[in-house]
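Course assignment 3, question 2. Fill in each field.
Student: A.L.
Task: Predict the tertiary structure for the chain below.
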Amino acid sequence: MILTTAPIDIVVGVVLYWIGIGLAGLVRPLSLRFISRVLFPLGAMGGLVLMAAALLGIPAAPATRVLPLGLPDLPFHIRLDALSAFFIGLLGVAVVGISLFSTGYFRRGQGTAPGLLCLQYHLFLAAMVTVLLADDAYLFMVAWETMAITSYFLVTSSHKIPEIRSAGFLYLLIAHIGAIAILLCFGVLQGGRGDYTFAAMRESELSAFWSSAAFMLALFGFGAKAGILPLHVWLPEAHPAAPSPISALMSGVMLKTAIYGMLRVTFDLLQTQLWWWGALALALGLLTAVFGVMFAAVQTDMKRLLAYSSIENIGVILAGIGLTIIFHAYGNPHLAALSLVATLYHSLNHACFKSLLFLATGSVLHATHERSLGKLGGLIRNMPWVAVTALIGSLAIAGLPPLNGFVSEWLLLQAFLFSPGLANPYLNMLVPVAAAALVLAAALSGYVMVKFYGVIFLGQYREARLAEARDEGPWARAGLVWLSAACVLLGVLPVGVILLLDHVTLPLVNFAIGTSAARTGWLLIAPVSPERASYGPLLFLLGITGTVLLTFALVRRLYHGRVRRGDAWDCGFPAQNARMQDTAEGFGQPIKQIFEPFFRIRRHLPSPFDAQPFYSATSEDRLWYWLYLPVARLNERLAAWIGILQHGRIYLYLLYSFVTLLALLMFVR
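Answer field:
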């Protein structure tokens, strides 16, 4: 039945299906068993159908529909093309794992009632798909705001906690500021025609000034949702506040809707691209990447660490978009297609490994009731399923071969290294520096993941109660294994993905690299030519596996199968305990020392006369104190001045109205 139905109709059917599942949660809103064991698995099936529809829709011709919804003479328009189908497939892959995990995650008494949570969750999914389908500004903004509102309620599920309410308010505030910029962007794109369909915007011929205005508004509006510098402050607050499956959805999927919006406006709705747009996006992306990974390295809360890591990965993706704009503006379609493929591939990869890591932290949080890295450790003994899948996610996000994170970062680095001399001398200086910044961010990301995984799962228990932690149940394991398998398959079989991405890059930058990348077969990737660079992920995996097996066989043969165990060298001090292990603060100390000017560090130094001396240091974001707090104080002062007008006397309010009317009449001709 799916094969004979148009992919766009399948996607619309999934949207209605998820809305129906959400409403079904209100039938028995307090029945946790019904919602977790029936509705969430049914929601996961919707993700599988979306994946199938995306695989059919990416190579197909664009399809459009006009829905019998909206306002009179202003109906909703939807369109499924290769770009939207790719991001819908990305959403489907992540939703399958997250929904399966959610089946075994949610507990009774955790804030919002289960039925209402189910409704908010599935409306959130439906809104994100609708954003990707929208073919007019009206439907796009309705879906965008629905996505923001439902995600706000999901973030504030435990709304009785003041800190969570504050985090939710900050998220909603920045989301609405970004939405205003997006609405203004669409206003510029329609070019005064009064037609807000994307089809009309594609035909608008804007000047360089108005095209630049539309791009800047899109960069600001979508950047607020993506969490780029300096609009990132909501992200490290909202992710720790939200339940772990919601954090996975927001980081893995919702941030990509902003990336989709940037690509849609820049390469589809705008008819021209200017080189300085790319230089700005490239610089901003790399600053965001380095900033995010620096702050991730010094975090002691495991969810805040992953939140800052999301900022770093969004920065890498934005840098890829900037590089694509530069190459496309200077007429180099081959490298533009290469950097765009790397950008899209990294978006897909990030959806998989970041969702996986947030779900793994949710498992740790449920098993230990602890988020602080300083109180965790040794959980690999009691939680082997979570530990193994988290290891796959950690290696993938660190960009180590043969997993998926390495492929996209390697492709993006090739685009940097293969860039010829550009016509602009300043760009010729910027590109090598940008490549070095990308390598720095990738190296620090590996450092962060060593800290994340080592402190949580390795070593000894830092608290005695950690010995009571237990592994996840079968539903949660299925979700973790699904996303782990995606990380592995996307890493070892990338040629098929690149060939599929040809259908996305060809209409956007008028070039495709799939043929050249696969010229040596599906075992090797050669993005430019085999003589210059190639990578064989499957061969790499076979080489690693063969080396491990050979070493194991030789050891068993040399030692005749005997196992000898002994204590590790203790430096001459035999009284070892958990306090002698490296701590999360210790791991982050070198980064804090090297990049100290970028942090606002507050230290508490003990006095020699303290009965119980202790030392503490917190690393805060300077941008919060330089930018956001002054704006907040100014807003409070303006509100106080305006509040002077509110006397509570009716005759004064009538006087205000009369004066306003007189002022308006002065401008009437």
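Instructor remarks: Residues 1-210+223-259 form one domain. Residues 333-368 form the longest helix (36 residues).
Grade: pending
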